[in-house]
Amino acid sequence: MTIEEEADLLLVWLRRESNSDTQALVDAEPFWYPPGDDHLVTLIDHLRGMGMVHNTELCASGTSCSLTARGVAEAERLIADRDNPRIRLEHAINGLVAAAMENYPTARLELVDFLLSMRTAVLDEILEVAEVFRAVEYLEANGIVTVDSRSPQTVRAITLTALGIECGFKDPISVRNFLNDQRQPRIHNEWSITVNGGAPQMGQGNTQNNTFGYDPQQLTQFAREVLAAAHSADVPEEVRATVVADVEALQAELATAAPESGRVRQLAERVLQSARANLPALGWTGVAQLLSASLGTPLF
Question: 56 with 92, same domain?
């Protein structure tokens, strides 16, 4: 796991131990770390740097800390994502492709190996077998895998197709993004250049894939405006933390190499609704109005 994934797992554990009480001082010693473990201290420092925990105490007997309102909001968002059937299915889909790519060039994966691996972990839970089989069905239906050794009751193994291997070489692996790109009509723009001072040369080129129904720069500007308003507004800390967490989730998705348009839209709608409900003094700039019209979400 990456440090971010470990920190998310620890954050969810702290939320459960504290019962979401930002004043509760929790002994931050989950069972999977020995007391005083240096890596655990690193994770807590990481969370503190992100504004997720405070009241950190390091002593010979162990480590303790409290969640901030922002930490509680982020933990609850992580739990909501963990329990979201669509996100769990996507986790299984991408995990199967990644696991099969570890066996490249055969790209063949025994399902039992996947089910016994850490790739089935979704935060502090494990994917159900039925969820993995649904992911296999999706991959097969979309030409990403072929199914090997199918018995009357179950699937024993899968093998990536040429299309699946192409998808598996993407970093990060996102099967849905890959399939969306495959289905997008390409926009061929005319271009002209001047060669050695001569006449402009015309031709076809500059192929672009536009997976957004709205302007990403517009979204980025809107996120900045909402974030600034959240920090300056006279609202309870819990409300501020919720709005900030929503905005930062949108910013994080926009910052990825290949933002998933459906998730961007979902996050943008959540930010718009959160700001509308909690930041009445935002003023609704022209950017907000344009975004509202683009998403079909009324401001009032």
Answer: no
